[in-house]
């Protein structure tokens, strides 16, 4: 997929290795769930020292996985937030690192989906607002790339609009409380070609 400054950054092999530390992966997930937090808050949630969480947050920031929340905190009490990323070109990353990241991602998605389905109420406006949809189609790799890019841009646009709305309502950086009508929302996006067994050359060809 072509580079686009408005889309999630593709993880490099070096970044994969830096991210694949168990505590860093846990800190990243907590920041995703909560929106933003300080090293001290994350230390209480993980049972680690604030020195440990602060160090690993700085390492995550060094490789672009988290960033400081602008206009909040101080040099002694920084607020952090997760940055979106994707991993597509695994390059020279060790196989064990790539497999570990993929397993971590899939496990997180499955667990979130199970909790979402189990906790959804049919008459809830949140259930009606969201979706669990699968769509399958014949495409070229170029068509799939175009579709993926368009979906990512749409996600980015709506996310930024919601953030601007919150700022307009006086939501200050570092304030993790939700307002009436708000919830943390997670969107999964995985567009991919089906495994090779679905592409049999023995399949009858269409006649012109």
Write the layout of secondary structure elements.
Blueprint: E1 9-10, H1 13-19, H2 22-34, E2 37-38, H3 39-46, H4 50-62, E3 66-68, E4 79-82, E5 85-86, H5 95-119, H6 125-129, H7 141-168
Parallel strand pairs: 1-5
Antiparallel strand pairs: 2-4, 3-4
Radius of gyration over C-alpha positions, nearest whole angstrom: 20 Å
Question: Oligomeric status of the shown chains?
Answer: single chain
Shape: globular
Query: Which strand-content bin applies to the residues?
Result: 5-15%
Protein name: ArsR family transcriptional regulator
Region (Disordered): 158-182
InterPro entries: ArsR-like_HTH, WH-like_DNA-bd_sf, WH_DNA-bd_sf
Structure characterization notes:
InterPro entries: ArsR-like_HTH (IPR011991), WH-like_DNA-bd_sf (IPR036388), WH_DNA-bd_sf (IPR036390). This is ArsR family transcriptional regulator. Residues 158-182 are annotated as: Disordered. The protein is mainly alpha-helical and 208 residues long. It has a single domain, classed as Winged helix-like DNA-binding domain superfamily/Winged helix DNA-binding domain (Arc Repressor Mutant, subunit A, Orthogonal Bundle). The chain has helices at 13-19, 22-34, 39-46, 50-62, 95-119, 125-129, 141-168; strands at 9-10, 37-38, 66-68, 79-82, 85-86. The chain has a three-stranded antiparallel sheet. A two-stranded parallel sheet has the order 1-5. Helix 2 (22-34) crosses helix 4 (50-62) and helix 3 (39-46) crosses helix 4. The chain is globular and about 55 Å long. Residues 1-7 have low confidence and may be disordered.
